[in-house]
Amino acid sequence: MLGPVILAASRSDRMRRLISAAPVTKQVVDRFIPGETVADIGPIIEDLTAKGLELTMDVVGEDITTPEQATAARDAYLALIDHLKGLELGERVEMSIKLSMFGQALDGGHELALANVRPVVEAAAAIGTTVTLDAEDHTTLDSMFAIHEELRKDFPQTGCVIQSYLFRTEADARRLAGSGSRVRLVKGAYKEPAEVAYQQKHEIDKAYVRILRILMEGEGYPMIGSHDPRLIAIAQELAHKAGRKLDEYEFQMLYGIRGEEHLRLAAEGHRMRVYTAYGTDWYGYFMRRLAEKPANLRFFLRSMVSKG
Fold first, then answer.
1. Which residues form the Proline dehydrogenase domain (predicted)?
2. Which of 59, 70, 288, 299 is the most core-located residue (most Cβ within 10 A)?
3. Are 140 and 114 in contact (CB under 8 A)?
């Protein structure tokens, strides 16, 4: 399986240098990360929302080693919110945040991440939108869920992400599926040990359906993070059986993957949100996109061959 190999490479400085130096890399990265600055991303936001799509914005960057870098990450999100304020799009454009960017892995990281993320959540609420806390590797999740619970005391619309490949997630889903919650379900994109996570695709998919049923039958707002046509069809069936209206759940997919499907779902009346990342520290994000789906890796390799 190439996925674990690619995920290991995502943490290799040598591979980072090699891939970053490849002439074709920027062309391929642009498929998934359409800009480096707020100015770059503005036209993308306006174009996608004009097509009936919604967005969640991610400022890429995870290798935070100092409190100053964590503060800079906070400020990058505040700059994004300041730009969104002028567009007056409200909840049609929300934000996704990895707490590792906000200092979670540093000494005193839990408190530091909470202190950094709170002003971003406050500023998002002030312009009528919200924030979703992304899930990272399993060692970070108890801290993420605790921060999520703390933020929801003042900002109940704050969302979080759960991953179907982890054994713990069915219990997490039951706990999180209460009234007013917003929960994005994804398969998971980190290399996790067999002690905590399913390793086979069919096991991960079956867990995804079980967890999605819990969310659909709960009182919260499910966000289906998948590009898999079969899982999308199952989600629609589960929503119908649960008596949910089209505005009581949403689909989420990555920018650059299955764009025609984004438009098809939106045209059918579904809420369709595009996960759109931007920034200069793109390497880790890009490598996980390659690891998640063989077609992404084939696209990258074909591009290297054709441009080499």
1. 45-299
2. 70
3. no
Q: What is the pLDDT of residues 142-200, one digit of tens each?
A: 999 999 999 999 999 999 999 999 999 999 999 999 999 999 999 998 889 999 999 99
CA 103 distance to own-chain centroid: 18
Sign of CA dihedral 136, 122, 111, 79: positive
pTM for the predicted model, two decimal places = 0.86
The pair of three-digit structure tokens given for residue 138, joined into one six-digit string: 């399993």
- What is the C-alpha to C-alpha distance for residues 240 and 221, in angstroms, rounded to an integer? 14
Which residues are tagged catalytic?
A: 134, 184
Tokens 């919200």 belong to which residue? 130
DSSP state of 92: G
Collect all residues with Cβ–Cβ distance below 8 Å to 67 and sequence separation of at least 6: 103, 106, 112
